[in-house]
Amino acid sequence: MEKIFKSLDEQVEIMRNKNLIIDDEYFVKDILLRENYFFINGYRYLFMKSADDRTFIDGANFREIYALFYFDRQLRNILFKNILTLENNIKSIISYELSRRYGFKEKNYLNPNNFTRDPKRSRQVNDLLKKVKRQINVNGSQHTATKHYQSNYGYIPLWIVVKVLSFGIVGELYTILKKEDQESIAEIFNTDVESMLIYLPIIANYRNLCAHEDICYEHRTQKEIPITKYHDLLNIPKMNGEFIYGINDLFALIIILKRVLRSDDFHIMLNEISYELDYLKGRLHSISIGKVLDKMGFPKNYKDIVRMD
């Protein structure tokens, strides 16, 4: 069925007809105009009676939907700044390790011989190195540091190049490193190669989601993280022998960040998330904060992860 334009008055009427309480039309119209009915509407599902009955539960108020929308925005901001910190850490460490082992000029660190020698992956190596060179050519001219090195020295060292490479490309770069290089990098992050290969695309997925203001709190990733000691230490409940939280949900990302962020940064991040959850809790009336935590994949004792080694 074709979607047609709806005025603010019509949008308000649609919500009222679905049993949603609108106690201040001016406030609702202002929010809908500034934030977009479509985006606000994406947060309605927790307040609906069922998947089949798309009317709102008794007592549900537009202010609650907006509170959840606002919470998700704050959550994205918190996650994004920490992911950017981690992105810088990963880029710095990879550039350091590769420069130390293979040299700091493009002809050295982009030599295909520096990467996996698996003949089945030779095409992947060559294709990815072409992508790296393309990003250097396209983005390099837009950055002062890269232009400075190219103009004055005739080359761009890897620790400068990583600034113009996307996080997705850097994550892919890790996948084609020699096993010993992967291990030395994973060790710095107190994890193993197999986990890093899963963590990096998940982190990149959340990075892009946060950057584009997509719904974050209930996001599920295609990849699942391996079971960690935190799943057991937190006594996360199981269903059919499988943990119900911390596998491919937001709490899985929290577990990743617990492992790879500096402990002080992680502690501050979780305190900020906890504050926003408490703030949201005070604005929910028709549903409990537990319903939100469940959607996030957060166990009730999620704060305990901070004190775990």
Write up this protein:
The chain has 309 residues and is mainly alpha-helical. The N and C termini lie far apart (54 Å). The model has no long low-confidence stretch (mean pLDDT 94). α1 (8-17) packs across α2, α4 (62-102) packs across α11 (193-211) and α9 (167-175) packs antiparallel against α11 (193-211). The radius of gyration is 23 Å and the shape is globular. The chain is built from 15 helices and two strands. A hairpin with a 2-residue loop joins β1 and β2 (242-243). Strands 1-2 form a two-stranded antiparallel sheet. It has helices spanning 8-17, 25-35, 37-41, 62-102, 106-109, 122-140, 144-153, 158-161, 167-175, 179-188, 193-211, 229-233, 250-260, 263-281, 289-296; strands at residues 238-239, 242-243.
